[in-house]
Design a protein that fits this description.
- The protein is an alpha+beta fold.
């Protein structure tokens, strides 16, 4: 049979965002990134860190008669780092009834665009020796699950599974022969449907596409039941095949893995030892630095994405280019740079700043988020994302990593802040316009840093302007954002608001402040409105302390802490965590079903890191927050964006204090953890500007 039936296949989706591992070679010649979830390979990115090319690659096991096992769903999985800080992984998958075991080892080739997977099958009962193993590969080439073409090919003694869409090509081969191969349309004629129906490969379609396709191959296991599979990419079918053959035959798995691990060992050896500040002997620290580096691009050094995941991917449509979290957010990228700097990496933060320079808009801003090549995704404006690159440039100068010449990037960004602040069109949660304590803290600190840069370059007029505006905004922070009409906690009417739409002096109609309403996104329309700005609080005010604008014992800060804790703090089995703000709707529904534009906000581990920095600034030990973050990490050491905050829902994999389906890992969370370790070692908040950003002091309302 030649052409598969059932075009174009079922509607495509992505894989689970609950990644157990992510990895890539450090060598810039390798342009492949991999992810692992539910014990199998999920999205693999090529040629840049923002371009996924598959949904998953997994094994199917049958006995030809009754047994049908899908590796992802039917086996029990354990994952382990081969060595701490080296993102190469061993996945052990067991049949729940103890009949067989699969052991897979994953890495990428430092010299080529290839991913290698060593698979060992161990029959544990006599009947399992007759079981059949099949590779099931679901390509989503070029960040799209539709319009893909799949075909099988025999070239010499080797079988090939081939996929393409547009300029993207991939080839899958193995050291073991393929007994049978087939291409099909997912949900109709793919290998899963074939094996589930027949318990053996009854179909051998040579081609499928365009559409939502998958490819299948039955493995002819060698005597030792071990084989190597290679997934390779190229700008043509032949290039991908040649790359795979070279990795499999000329170099071999052992040599590739050795080179992969040597590269990471050398990098980790050059980092600071912060293990003494952790609660786990440095395990999550080494893993976190590897996660941060893994999220950086190779062809455009310094470019980095927020997460190698697509939130709630199993319900996310793949029939249009997915943004997910594999996009550049200037805010997240700043945090990644500072986390790496805190770990002792003095090269990557400079590359990140150079990259941000290249993506600055002509008017001085940065887009809300964008692809690695600079194409916009969402085109909103968040003033903290204009301020953070200034702070990064100032810090790198302070570290001696940049010279003292005039800095056009800093000047353009500072001029933009002066012209468009202090009201931000969106806060850091990407939702509301107004006066945000967090954004104001970043903007004021950035203008002071810009003034220091200008002074060092002999640009006195600009420096004076930035100082003047920063001082003015600083004096008014409480006028704009501190309320005395809060009704959130009895006896605590005064606190910083999450964001203020209109300051009382500018209401026009002279509405009472409590009658200015804040729309809450991600809630159903009937619940979106009716929230007084006086009654919504978040932890953004802590940035005022973090960046040195307010003392930890400032009365406004002390009055807000109990309100924020009462409304947003929850104690989990891992320790404390906080919601973004009270009333948040970004998270799973109460029944655990995925966020679909509405939901209920869940707890964010990174906010435990922010609270830890406040505790340190206040003279207390942040160890409880450090230990909570270490507990929030999953079995692969990945820190989630959100953790579950309600009763367990086992059928959806939701447990208190464990990651939800939003995004795992979140690079920002790993950066926050590393920064907290470095801050604890130094006894001061590491990200606080050291010079040129003196502490302010706003007046009380």
């Amino acid at each position: 049979m030649t052409e598969a039936f059932g075009a174009p296949g079922s509607p495509p989706t992505w894989a689970s965002a609950r990644k157990q591992a992510v990895g890539t070679a450090l060598d810039p010649r390798s342009h492949v990134w991999f992810t692992i979830a539910e014990g199998v390979l999920t999205e693999v990115y090529h040629p840049s860190v923002d371009c996924p090319n598959q949904r998953d690659l997994q094994l199917l096991v049958t006995d030809g008669e009754e047994l049908f096992h899908e590796e992802r769903r039917d086996l029990l999985h354990e994952i382990a780092w081969l060595e701490e800080g080296v993102p190469a992984f061993r996945i052990t998958s067991r049949d729940p009834q103890g009949r067989y075991r699969l052991t897979k080892t994953v890495c990428t080739d430092p010299e080529a665009d290839c991913l290698l997977l060593r698979v060992r099958y161990e029959p544990l009962v006599e009947a399992a020796r007759r079981y059949r193993l099949h590779l099931l590969w679901a390509p989503h080439m070029g960040n799209l699950g539709t319009g893909n073409h799949a075909r099988t090919r025999r070239h010499g003694s080797r079988g090939w599974l081939l996929a393409r869409r547009g300029p993207h090509y991939a080839a899958l081969a193995a050291t073991a022969p393929f007994r049978r191969m087939s291409a099909g349309y997912v949900g109709r004629s793919d290998g899963w449907q074939d094996l589930h129906r027949h318990r053996r490969m009854a179909w051998s379609f040579a081609e499928a596409g365009p559409g939502h396709v998958a490819l299948t191959a039955e493995i002819d296991l060698p005597a030792d039941s071990t084989f190597i599979a290679c997934l390779a990419f190229g700008n043509s079918e032949s290039a991908a095949m040649e790359s795979a053959a070279d990795s499999l035959l000329r170099r071999g798995f052992a040599a590739v893995l050795q080179a992969y691990m040597d590269g990471w060992r050398a990098y980790q050896a050059g980092l600071l030892d912060l293990s003494g500040q952790s609660g786990d002997g440095g395990r999550l620290y080494r893993r976190s630095v590897a996660v941060l580096r893994t999220h950086l691009d190779k062809r455009q050094p310094g470019a980095g994405v927020a997460s190698l995941s697509i939130p709630w991917g199993e319900s996310a449509r793949a029939d249009e280019p997915a943004g997910g979290y594999h996009l550049v957010w200037p805010r997240d990228l700043h945090h990644q740079a500072m986390g790496l700097l805190a770990a002792g990496d003095r090269q990557a933060p400079v590359e990140i700043l150079r990259y941000l320079r290249s993506r600055q808009q002509p008017d001085g801003r940065w887009l809300q988020n964008f692809w690695i090549d600079g194409r916009p995704y969402w085109e909103g404006l968040q003033l903290d994302e204009v301020g953070y690159p200034i702070l990064l440039a100032h810090r790198l100068r302070d570290e001696g990593l940049l010279d003292r010449k005039p800095d056009p990037m800093v000047r353009r960004a500072a001029d933009f802040l002066v012209a468009h602040g202090p009201v931000t069109p969106q806060d850091r949660w990407e939702e509301n316009r107004g006066y945000s304590p967090h954004t104001l803290a970043v903007a004021v600190a950035a203008l002071r840093a810009a003034a220091a840069v200008a002074e060092a370059a002999g640009e006195a007029p600009q420096a004076a302007t930035y100082h003047r505006v920063a001082q003015s905004w600083d004096r008014h922070i409480e006028d704009w954002t501190f309320t005395d009409c809060g009704r959130l906690l009895p006896g605590h009417a005064e606190h910083y608001e999450r964001i203020a739409l209109i300051p009382p002096a500018d209401t026009g109609a002279h509405l009472p402040e409590c009658r200015v309403f804040l729309p809450i996104r991600n809630l159903p329309p009937e619940a979106m409105y009716g929230h007084s700005q006086c009654c919504v609080v978040d932890g953004g005010f802590l940035e005022l302390v973090r960046l040195g604008l307010r003392a930890p014992d400032d009365p406004h800060v002390l009055k807000t802490l109990p309100v924020w804790d009462a409304l947003c703090r929850r104690d989990t089995p891992c320790g404390p965590a906080w919601y973004r703000y009270n009333g948040d709707g970004y998270g799973e529904h109460d029944d655990g079903s995925p966020f679909d534009g509405t939901g209920r906000g869940r707890l964010w581990p990174l906010l435990a890191g922010e609270r830890g920095h406040y505790e340190l600034a206040a003279g207390r030990d942040p160890a409880p927050c450090i230990e909570a973050l270490e507990c929030f990490a999953n079995e692969g050491g990945m820190l989630p964006e959100q953790v579950w905050d309600a009763a367990p829902i086992p059928e959806r994999g939701l447990q208190p204090g464990r990651g939800t389906g939003s995004a795992t890992p979140l690079a920002w969370a790993h950066a926050e953890y590393v920064l907290l370790l470095r801050s604890r070692r130094e006894g001061r908040v590491f990200v606080r500007p050291r010079r040129g950003a003196p502490s302010g002091g706003g007046g009380a309302r």
